[in-house]
Amino acid sequence: MKLLKRTLFQKLIPATLLVALGMTAQAQVGDRWSVERSIIPQDMEATEANVVIQSDGSINVTFRGGSIENPELGGIYFTRSDNQGYSWMKPEPAVSTAGIVTGVTHQLQTDGDNLLLYVAVNRLARYELIQYLSTDRGQSWRETETVFSSIDPIRSMVSWRGLGRLYIFVITVRSRPTGGDEHTIWLVQGRASGAYWDQPVRVKNFFADSISSPQLLPPELSDWPRLYWRQDGIEDFMLQVGDASGSTWRILPLPNPPDTQRGGVMEDMGIRYRVRATEDRQLLFNRTDDQLPQTTLLTTVPSEVESDFLKLVWQGEDNYTLPSFLRFEVQLDESEPVIWDATSYEFEGLSNGSHRISITAIDEAQNRQVPPTVRNFRVQVPPVPEFVTPTTGDLLNASEIKAVWKGSDNVAEDAPLLFSLKIDDEEWGDWITDTEMTVDNLEDGEHGFFLRAKDSYENVSKEPATVRFEVDSEPPVSVVEELPRDWDNLQAVWPDIPNYKVEFRVTGRDNRTAGSDLEYRYKLDDGLPSAWMSVEDITSLSGLPDGTHKIEFETRDEAGNVQSPPTSLDFDFNTPPNTHLWVDDTNAAGRTYRFQGKDSNSNLSDIMFRWKIDEDGDWSDWTIETQALASNILKGVSHGEHVLYLQARDSAGNVDPTPAREIIEVDTIPPDPPVGIKVIVQDDGSNVDLRWESVSDAATYQVYRSNAETLDRSTARLVYSGPNTRTRDIPGREEHTVTYYYFITASDRSGNESEPGEVQKVEVLGNTEIRVKEFKQVERTVNTVIGSKRWNEVQRIASEAQPEIVPQAYLEYWKLSASAGMALNSDPQNFQQLTSAKTGMDKFIKSPPQIDPVYFEQSGEKDVAINGM
Q1: 506 φ, ψ to 5°?
Q2: Is the pLDDT of residue 167 over 60?
Q3: DSSP for residue 546
């Protein structure tokens, strides 16, 4: 019964209804789905879609969407394919009216020729279900009728077609403040052409906070489909007809959700189609495809190929898969097939023999071409011989030549190659497997070797390998000459050593090689041979040990023939040292000339020197000294410009042919004596500052201190020598006063010293005279205080005075005077103190202490202080 009802339902509800039901017909065994393909431009998006097939076989799709850049301007768009989904027209707007209700899937139907589009629209005061009609295959649309109208919002709708009529379930919703919104299911039906719609009939109502988008399910007990939805996200319900006329309906709970397939799937002429809008708003289409793709080979493959390389080019065709999406299975012989995306393939390394190439096209539905495109051919690549030695252009120096060769073939199996050798104009040799042969008794001159190869398929090389060479076995001869030396004029900047060298030129001749193309090498003494060089190069030797050396030369021609025996020469190599002379003005003893020598074959300590003044002067004796004072070298040399020559000699007796030279100015005229001399004496002569004016041409100044009034350098003390025009001297203090005389002279850079300037006399007080001087200062102070009768002050000075400065007699006298003065000036007078002072004074006068006479010699006031009272 169920099978009968399902069949009747499918008759009543043709292919267009399958989209709304979200159902597919039972796939036949072998049905293959193609890869999904976007059917809208990249700058558009889609949120829902419907598909129908018209009687002309065209696939018609409507979708809700619009431009990605301006999604608010979207509406319902239409596109069509007239070739079973192979290509699609550019989407065009179908309905752009304002107020299209969001969340309500539009519906698309067809009566076979015309297209009917149903859209829920919010008209502000009412919600309406509008029917749009297209009679020109979707090119234009017009509003024809309001199928349903309600003050309650339209929540969803589904449509189907059967028994020549159209049916639509419409669900409206009325909100309730307490929750559990009221949902009402309406049934609207009309003619299949979309004309003459009946009044909507309320089928059922129920309460729920939310419901899913309803889906049609196949009928079970009648020809009417069932309606399924999920309520509040957890409970499943189904609307089912109660009688065959569709006048009564009931809502049944479902313990388990039905097995549904979302998305529009249709079938036409055995082909199923599917359109769906994805979450990322793409509109994808695919279809079943059981038709096999084909391959057409564009490359002509000959039966015989004379190359191991073959390139094939082909094109693929399919009823649905685009050529760029076809893949191809390429197989050579029994090798592993290769899956290839391109329409060309290069076969490399094809071995000789028969081959088979097959190409099988594979479309997106995994349909494989049967039978594959096959080509058979045979590869015949001849072998290629090649000489290893000799090579063309070789010039060989032996009459016995070893020919070595190799060959390559295109044979897969490991079969040996055969070779045949031909020498000059002789006959071809036998076929052999050897890869070398020694050919002897070749005369001097040009020769040619020729080689053929043959593989196991009897393929013989097209062209023989050829090598042409020349034999020359006669060696060259040479002449060697030493070039003139110019050692006497060689100089080098110190510390370099002159590049003393010997040079040889080699010339030669040969029976074949031009003289300028010959090469040579040499061997010095017992050393190793040098590298080969052109005869146009000069051999230059330097840095050799002193003594006699032997050098041998060999020449070689272009064929490699070497001269025998070599040309031999003996030569002497004795290099002199290099001499360096420089002036040192830092020596305290005076200007010094320093000597240096450098030699590549001698120790520096073994080098000796001699010098002379001017070209016509006499050389000094050889010495190992490396310095000499200018005063010694220039002794007796006249005033003016001269040249000092210095020459070095090494331990072997080789003398520097280019002595070092230094232009010198000999100056025997001293500068003027210093003038403007000033002397400042401090601390009674213990510090003496001397200043003077600078003297032209003076390099240093000398300050002498002497006890004599005239300068005697042998007895005078040099207290300063330097470039400054002032100095200080601390002569030191004696016990008694000493008189000194200062002399100042100027010296130039040549050491000439002037006469002294004006003599400066300085008196340095002795320690005794210093003490007397300090005593006199104290004495004058005491006399002043006594005169003003400040006896307490006199008493203090006498108590604090230093006994090594003030004699004891004065100290006692001052104390007695202070005691007597204080007694006389007291009020009332202190007679006891006065008597004591008088007694002390009488005693002092009768036997006064001794006083050093120097105190009286200094002042001339012998009795002044004592008699001052």
Answers
A1: -115, 130
A2: yes
A3: S
Which stretch of 25-34, 505-514, 825-834 has the lowest confidence by average pLDDT? 25-34
The amino acid sitting at 184 is T
Q: Which two tokens stand for residue 151?
A: 């003050």
Query: What is the rounded CA–CA span in Å between residue 455 and residue 384?
Result: 10
DSSP three-state, residue 506: strand
What does DSSP assign to residue 100? B
| Count of C-beta atoms within a 10 Å radius of residue 453 | 24
What's the rounded Cα separation, in Å, for the pair 5 and 583? 133
Closest alpha carbon to 194 in 95, 116, 137, 78: 116
Residue ranges in 647-736 assigned as alpha helix (H): none
Helical packing angle, 767-787 and 808-824, nearest 10°? 10
Domains annotated on the chain, with CATH: 2-287 (2.120.10), 294-379 (2.60.40.10), 384-471 (2.60.40.10), 477-573 (2.60.40.10), 578-666 (2.60.40.10), 678-765 (2.60.40.10), 768-867 (no CATH)
- 791-800 vs 767-787: helix crossing angle, rounded to 10: 160
Contact 289/363 with Cβ under 8 angstroms?
yes
816 vs 799: CA distance, rounded Å? 12
Specify whether the CB–CB gap between 377 and 423 falls below 8 A: no
439 touches 400 (CB < 8 A):
yes
Tell me how far apart the alpha carbons of residues 744 and 702 are, in angstroms, rounded to a whole number: 6
Are 316 and 342 within 8 A, CB to CB? Answer: no
3-state secondary structure of 598: strand
Distance in angstroms (rounded) separating the CA atoms of residues 358 and 328: 10
CB distance 363 to 318 below 8 Å: yes
Q: What is the 3-state secondary structure (H, E, C) of 374-401?
A: EEEEEECCCCEEEEEECCCCCEECCCCE
Rounded to the nearest integer, the mean pLDDT of the chain is 87
DSSP summary character for residue 799: H
What is the Cα gyration radius of the chain?
68
- Measured CA to CA, the distance from residue 138 to residue 79 in angstroms comes to 8
Burial class (CB in 10 A: 0-12, 13-18, 19+), 706: middle
**Residue with tokens 């609307």, as numbered in its chain:** 239
Convert the pLDDT of each residue in 372-400 to its tens digit: 999 999 999 999 999 999 999 998 988 89
